[in-house]
């Protein structure tokens, strides 16, 4: 009888442990702009998450490639990524190689979500939780639609929600190589890299690109979303025409390519002179 009671108690303990483990493993819901801490929760090694994208291999979340580097200075894979509360993924592809012109580098990486975790294409400020409009991404602006003076916003783990105007294309020299980016008057700082660049207008919230760094003048510079999609052979699932405005489904269950704006309404972007040393954020 004594052995039976011990056996029952042991079984109850195992059941309680199992239930506790299950409860603690609630899904992580990624939102565009969430922080990305590498290696451990709230680590000082952090960047900002970008848009979710889909391809033939599934759905991934983008961020800047220089956020995770190997010993030789090139982009590394394998880093475990933590968000606002816990781990939610791992870097599985990193195309950062240094100099854009000599190594075919694109400063971008893909994070594969952990099983059971999910992503919503809703832009949020990682510092306040606020969103432009309802935050739901309706589509994106192609490079051909971007113009000088175009007002954009960005989200970043360090400086949050800032806005500015596009100034033009610029070759920005960084300590680890040059990059060809679109620069703006918006403010950014180290830790903002990877963050979403967006625009909120009559179309709704529209994807524009990814924060890479700042030029010598201190303006935030970004890689356009069209370039990123082309690099990864991906598309950006959105709350486009086939989804109701109040549809709460995640991008793994729904989403379409949404609006793609291709015509600009202002002056064409100029190629600006190369300035002094910039800083990757």
Structure description:
Helices cover 12% and strands 36% of the residues. It is mainly beta and 281 residues long. The protein folds into 2 domains: 29-121, Trypsin-like serine proteases (Thrombin, subunit H, Beta Barrel); 127-280, Thrombin, subunit H (Beta Barrel). The strands form 3 sheets. A 7-stranded antiparallel β-sheet has the order 3-2-6-7-8-5-4, with no helix packed on it. Strands 11-12-13-16-15-14 form a 6-stranded antiparallel beta barrel. A two-stranded parallel sheet has the order 1-9. The termini are far apart. Mean pLDDT is 90; it is low at 1-23.
Rg estimate, integer Å:
21 Å
Level-1 CATH class name of the largest domain: Mainly Beta
Strand order of the largest sheet: 3-2-6-7-8-5-4
Structural shape:
globular
Query: Distance between the terminal alpha carbons, to the nearest Å?
Result: 66 Å
**Tally of contiguous helical segments:** 3
Could you give the topology of this structure?
Layout (H helix, E strand, L loop, with lengths): L1 H23 L4 E4 L2 E4 L7 E3 L3 E4 L2 E6 L16 E3 L4 E8 L5 H4 L5 E5 L4 E6 L13 E5 L9 E4 L7 E13 L2 E8 L11 E6 L2 E11 L5 E5 H8 L26 E3 L17 E2 L1
Parallel strand pairs: 1-9, 10-15, 10-17
Antiparallel strand pairs: 2-3, 2-6, 4-5, 5-8, 6-7, 7-8, 11-12, 11-14, 12-13, 13-16, 14-15, 15-16, 15-18
Quick structural summary:
By secondary structure, this protein is mostly beta strands. The protein folds into 2 domains: 29-121, Trypsin-like serine proteases (Thrombin, subunit H); 127-280, Trypsin-like serine proteases (Thrombin, subunit H), CATH 2.40.10.10. The chain contains 3 helices and 18 strands.
């Amino acid at each position: 009888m004594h052995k039976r009671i011990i056996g029952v108690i042991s079984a109850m303990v195992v059941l309680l442990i199992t239930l506790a483990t299950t409860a603690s493993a609630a899904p992580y819901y990624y939102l565009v702009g969430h922080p990305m801490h590498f290696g451990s929760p709230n680590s000082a090694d952090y960047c900002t998450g970008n848009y979710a994208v889909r391809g033939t291999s599934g759905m991934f979340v983008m961020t800047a490639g220089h956020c995770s580097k190997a010993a030789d200075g090139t982009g590394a894979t394998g880093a475990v990524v933590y968000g606002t509360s816990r781990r939610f993924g791992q870097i599985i592809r990193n195309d950062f190689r240094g100099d854009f012109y000599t190594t075919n580098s694109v400063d971008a990486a893909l994070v594969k979500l952990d099983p059971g975790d999910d992503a919503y294409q809703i832009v949020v400020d990682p510092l306040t939780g606020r969103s432009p409009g309802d935050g739901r991404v309706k589509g994106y602006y192609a490079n051909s639609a971007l113009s000088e003076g175009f007002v954009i916003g960005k989200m970043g783990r360090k400086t949050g929600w800032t806005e500015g105007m596009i100034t033009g294309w610029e070759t920005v020299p960084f300590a680890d190589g040059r990059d060809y980016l679109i620069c703006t008057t918006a403010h950014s700082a180290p830790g903002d890299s990877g963050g979403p660049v967006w625009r909120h207008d009559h179309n709704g919230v529209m994807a524009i690109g990814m924060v890479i760094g700042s030029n010598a003048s201190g303006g935030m510079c970004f890689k356009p979303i069209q370039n990123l999609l082309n690099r990864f052979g991906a598309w950006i699932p959105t709350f486009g025409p086939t989804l109701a405005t109040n549809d709460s489904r995640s991008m793994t269950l729904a989403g379409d390519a949404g609006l793609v704006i291709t015509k600009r309404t202002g002056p064409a972007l100029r190629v600006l002179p190369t300035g002094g040393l910039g800083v990757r954020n």
